[in-house]
Amino acid sequence: MLTAIVLIDTDPARIPEVASEVADLKGVSEVYSVTGKADLVAMVRVQEHDQLADVIADRISKVPGVVRTETFIAFRAYSNVDLEQAFALGLDD
């Protein structure tokens, strides 16, 4: 599995809409609104390197309101946090 962290600059008037549209794209696992130099951060997870171009260049960058993207490809994960399990804390199965 390949993971890319994509910083997304957007038209400020469309941040929520862009976040929602990007989150719905196949290959995008999460989208966060953030403080700092980017408006949004998207986590892209795909099986093959070529799929990164499909998701980032061909889909994310073409969402109306996306101004610019900057992509970081992850080499190695140092934490194997199970987010689903973390959010389920305190809930009975």
UniProtKB/TrEMBL annotation:
Task: Give the species this sequence originates from.
Answer: Cellulosimicrobium funkei
InterPro entries associated with the record: Dimeric_a/b-barrel, Tscrpt_reg_AsnC/Lrp_C
One GO MF term on file is: sequence-specific DNA binding
Q: Which residues form the Transcription regulator AsnC/Lrp ligand binding domain?
A: 6-76
According to the UniProt record, one GO cellular component term is:
cytosol
Q: Which GO terms describe its biological process?
A: response to amino acid
Write the protein's name: AsnC family transcriptional regulator
One Pfam annotation reads AsnC_trans_reg
Q: So which domain of life are we looking at?
A: Bacteria
